[in-house]
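Pasting two entries for a bug report.
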Amino acid sequence: MASPTASNVTTDHDEHPAQRRVLAVLVTTQILNGAALAAGITVGALLAEEMLGSTGLAGVPSALFTIGAAVGAAGIGRACQRWGRRPGLTLGYGIGALGSLVVVAATAWDSVPLLFLGLLVYGAGTASVMLARYAGADLAAPARRGRAVSTVLFATAAGAIAGPGLVGATGDLARSWDLPRLSGPFLLAFVAFLAAALVLGALLRPDPLLLARATAGGPAPDATTGPRGGRTTLRGLPPEDLRRMVAGAAVMVLSQVVMIAIMTMTPVHMTDHGHATGTAGLVIGLHMGAMYLSSPLSGYLVDRTGRTPTAALGAVVLCGAALLASAAPPGSAPALALALVLLGIGWNLGFVSGTTMVTDAAPPDRRAAYQGFMDVGVLIAGASGGLASGVLVAAGGFGLLTGAGAVLALLFTLYLVARGGLPGSRVRGDG
């Protein structure tokens, strides 16, 4: 079955009748998932610094739960491919709840190996939070896919903003139970992931991926081995769709690497220069809010001006954010907050445009496995950025890290300009 191309673009009125219900359920669960996702991002590096006693290793948690997310993206993507979005995503949220509890136990017993295991499992669960954006696009008309993806990401903002702001309150709760303060956000993550699993498992009916396959009328996937006999490869895709998929992955990789590297070390940078943990949490909360609150703008630009121009704009914003973070006085929380807000906006522009490129290229009967496969590459790149962030800061300070991020984003921007933009879907005027 041929995948969607510019020649078969449908109109806004072709939206499937079940799309609104699907988006409503996903919006509800993503509000919960945002809080769960924010826990590891906010205190992961601080936990490592406290338990390992080394700033150079503070990037290890980010790398671990990003590696876990890569494994989870592959596994959850395969589960969605075989059984549908509802069973696959519900499984992922349950894994996230389990990993959160393991992290809490690790802090209680001061066990570094258990902490690493918990972060890996927690990371595997967080993959389902990001994979949910694809579920929002399963039934969307091609001309509205960017906005469908952005709606799901936008819903994550409420929890993402609230999560870091609850660091103090959840820390107090943890202390009242004779647990370390930094375990508090992971208690919140456990509750949020569990609630999301219950809501989605009960209410995501009909399953959007299974319905999209039935509507498309293509061949059903092999329920035992998935597409292509057990291995998810890009073989068999038409050349134009292959270029679109690789282009989408490249845009998401660049956005993820720059964003994760700078975001991971900002709390450490701030606390090392006298800022309170709550202040660092507020800055990360603003960053998380910008990551998702800017989604409507990204979705509009993707659908109206094109996938590729939006991706190029995202690279420019990422470069500016990294330069501002590098120039910001260490003692200035507002300046660092502004840089992190821009970092979140740049990430969102790249992530929504890249996600839409991948969805445009993937045929319904193989869509979930391909999407999970693409996210594996994105997350592995993010893990590398998280691991390298601590090393760069230990070697040359926060300025070296942000400078490297600016150079990477600048080179990518110049590449886009030189090539006239990466190949992308030409839905609604992309060029």
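Entry 2 (this is the one that rendered wrong in the viewer):
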Amino acid sequence: MILETNRLILRHWQESDADILFEYASDPDVGPIAGWPVHESREYSLDVIRNVFNGPECYAVCLKDSGLVVGAIELLLNGRTDMTDRDDECELGYWIGKPHWGNEYAPEAARRLIEHGFLDLGMRTIWCGYYDGNSKSRIVQEKLGFVFHHTCDEVDVPLLNEIRIGHTNIMTRKHWLCGKMKNSLYDQLARDYCCDAADIYSSDNIFSEYRQIEGQRRFKGQEKCPLKIAVVNGKLLFTGRREIVDECRKRYENASGKWFMDIEKFRELDSILSSYGCKLKSAHPFYLPTELSEQAVRKDTTDKLIDSKFKEDFNLVRYTGDEILQFKGDDRWNEAFCFDDNTPDVLAVAAVSDGEIIGMAGASADSDDFWQIGINVVQDAEGRHVGTLLVSELTMDILRSGRIPYYGTGMSHIASQRVAAAAGYDVFWFELLAGK
């Protein structure tokens, strides 16, 4: 297994790494503060590679451009850690060689390994700890989003024959996913609404003149964008033509987003827009995943999916790229696919029963980072949870590709909203669009 980040490669340790390991581990500032002794010889380092760094999820942290080893990182699974005895929990451990301190390699490597643990290994909880006084490790864990769990005043450190104070932190899959979704959403909305991510985090409503920015979500007919409004985190974001946005600023600079999308506001906005030859065109809630289906987080990669409620088997068939074009013109899948060059269809998962497709979930690349899910289920298969299962599967495929899955639907489409909720999605923002 090889894992990659922007700057790093995580690969399994090799015996040929003994020299570089000894170079780092012989420094007294590296091991003892983490609870392991200074390496006294290359032979000792080689023994560590053979007998300690031999876990299935133990990796050498290497620079992508040169291949140089800069440290170590591991998810210690059940049997290799005393923090848990559950198969769906593990412990994160890491260290970076002193010559490479200050480069943020530890959090970068850890983020990738945490993602691997939650998405590929089926972990529900990851534990992480540090000894009192190890401020560097504490700071890394804070950056990663771990939260405090407990402190123990008498922790045995067997490799050093010591008793120390130990602090234990925790990260659940839901906490990790919610944080990832929120940060990604704010970055995307900053591009879409022509502002900075820091503006999204602020409490003030945002008003900006629309301009095309690389990385925005791309939709046909929105190139000139007279006005669009988002409600996120209780605040309002406006972007569009300068004169329309200026008029909105006069009226809504101090407005709350909590009740903004009521009919009364729609009438008021339509009145503003009509004087500029425009009108409201759509209003939708949008969802992001905060839970992952246990059926979709699988340790095997078989394409057999079993609905636990009805004990029915659905074979899954996946399509990518040009394979999706075979469904163009098939109205059964008009929600799953858009066939629009602005938002190309990139992934799909079909449910097949008795040789017939009974449901299809498709993903369109609305931006480089945000891929929107659409779903169709044939009438005879409604009520069998096909839609929920397909959305859950496609969600995992999108996350594993390094993108963010999101889901939009109509305010009165209750069935679609139920699919989103059952697949682990929560409402994160609401969006209103105007046009000619």
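Dev reply: Rendering is fixed now. As a check, the viewer should reflect this: The CA atoms of residues 190 and 197 lie 5 Å apart.
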